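Why does residue order matter? Because the sequence determines the fold. Keep that principle in mind as you read this record.
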Amino acid sequence: VVKMVYNQPSEMMGIPTLRFGFSPDLFGSVKEYPENQCYCQDTWEYCQKGGVVSLAPCIGGAPVFASRPHFMGAHKDFIDGVVGMTPHGDYSSYADIEPHIGLPIKATLRIQINVELEPYESMPSFASVPHVMFPLLWLEEA
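Structure:
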């Protein structure tokens, strides 16, 4: 379950709607949002930095994390760790809801799936890999 909060009034094809977006605590650090500790497990280093959320509890412990595209709003270390990240523009996810009957009129999900890369001495090709959060996939569904 992803908590969404009201952002602003909006309109779709002349129909007034209310726009809801991800709660600010979704990708927040444990320092800012202590309740996010339950998602940390063995990823304490990343929990101290805002911008990613571990998916490990949902997928058997794999080092997979979700973030906004291009690490938008994330800690500088995530952005600087990978060449080509440009965290500007509209990378928000939202749902426009008709206020009287609660019907979703429009929704957009923008999310980036990342894997934790780290050196692995037993495999020569991974021995000198930097320890970074590596973007694997960027999804945009409307």
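The two ends are 19 Å apart (CA to CA).
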